[in-house]
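quick one: uridine-5'-diphosphate-glucose bound model?
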Amino acid sequence: MRVCVIGTGYVGLVTGVCLSHIGHHVICIDNNEEKVKLMKSGQSPIYEPGLSELMHSCMEAGRLEFTSDLAAGVDHGEILFIAVGTPALPTGESDTRYVEAVARGIGENLNGGYKVIVNKSTVPIGSGDWVRMIVMDGLAKREDSPRDVEFDVVSNPEFLREGSAVYDTFNPDRIVLGSNNDKAIAMMQELYQPLVDRKFADDPSLPPVPVVVTDLNSAEMIKYAANAFLATKISFINEVANICDRVGADVTQVAAGIGLDSRIGNKFLQAGIGWGGSCFPKDVLALIHTATDYNYETELLNAAVSVNKRQRLIAVEKLQQELKILKGKTIGLLGLTFKPDTDDMRDAPALIIIEQLNRLGAKIKAYDPIVSQSGLSHGLSNVLIETDAEMLADSCDALVLVTDWKEFLSLNYGKMAQVMANPVIIDGRNFLDRSKLEMAGFHYVGIGR
Ligand SMILES: NC(=O)c1ccc[n+]([C@@H]2O[C@H](COP(=O)([O-])OP(=O)(O)OC[C@H]3O[C@@H](n4cnc5c(N)ncnc54)[C@H](O)[C@@H]3O)[C@@H](O)[C@H]2O)c1
Ligand SMILES: O=c1ccn([C@@H]2O[C@H](COP(=O)(O)OP(=O)(O)O[C@H]3O[C@H](CO)[C@@H](O)[C@H](O)[C@H]3O)[C@@H](O)[C@H]2O)c(=O)[nH]1
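yep, here:
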């Protein structure tokens, strides 16, 4: 099928490349000319395992193009994906101005024939009908308004995780389609059939991927409810970890013990320094904001947010317990990104830890496998970025493991302990082997263990 994806951030680019890989002809559009230039030259603007390789092969096969020309993309696509950002406004409300600009642009460029317009962006409940209105508005403003234009809007929320986005796209737990229109749903089902049949999955023998067809509002709500549930689950285990710390239990053992109950499940029970990233924080706030608009107080979601706020500072609290005064001490951060296998720093817990350590007068160094000094941004200006973990450890009064990058499992901790002023490590993700670290000469401090 002919597809146009508008917005080439994590979601847009991964969606465009993967749809092309399963056989569709895809044009990806972005209004950032620099990004388009980079992608045209075959380079991915984001770090995402496996993405560059797929991008190259699809471009070589002639099924994937990049442009900033919206008119060309709208003309090409039978299915038009809106995949632009919906960041949080200071009120917590979702900023839908980019979605609005794209919807208007689609209206201004529709040239007859039937199109399905898909909301892939995470948008407030009710946005499906709103997008239809904006498209109609764009269409009406044209002097040459074509008569035979016909379109429907479908909500198709995205559940991929950064760092495993390609894997998640080929191995989805479900595909959600929200619309009241059978023709639009049928076209979306045809588009996704190879994924439903697990033709590109790691295990093609599994039963077909469930396709959940709902009305527009319910599909939009499914996205917010999924993220809010997962964020709450992490806040729950973090609260349990804080109690474990006080009573002398080990939260990793507790998580294993409760996770075996199939009603609970073992995923998203890793206690640590809290959830961050481009989605959980903004989506939970957006859902709270929506509820407030309807005069409903979200007590549970408010608690999930406040537990998380506090949890982000737990590493600093533990540093104070170990070192007492932080002024003038050197703290080394192992990892900066909000999770491993991504270069995304949006709402990363590291940023809050850095802000607090700066306030308390500590000197901060960091090592991250993907973040370099030259690529510094996002409030990291007071941080010295080292190029390897041993240089990071040199003269530090303590280390904090912030991101659970796999390579941190096999560092030479013996050598690192020797070059530190004081070999203390706060394992902010309960990721390392305590006995291995203690044998290497470290004083190990976990979260809730
Ligand atoms: N990042 C994730 O892991 C993830 C997962 C699921 C859902 N989502 C949702 O998907 C949406 C996109 O998220 P993202 O992280 O990929 O966004 P992003 O901010 O990384 O990228 C958005 C892209 O859209 C482009 N853009 C903005 N306005 C445009 C316009 N008028 N025309 C063309 N391009 C335009 C920007 O230049 C940018 O490249 C958001 O609603 C987000 O909540 C994100
Ligand atoms: O047991 C856990 C699991 C995760 N995290 C943290 O939670 C945050 C989010 O992690 P993850 O969900 O793996 O990453 P995202 O890429 O933000 O993906 C989430 O947000 C996306 C955007 O909406 C959704 O599409 C995904 O389904 C949803 O998992 C990160 O800071 C993790 O460190 C924990 O602290 N403990």
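The chain has a mean pLDDT of 96.
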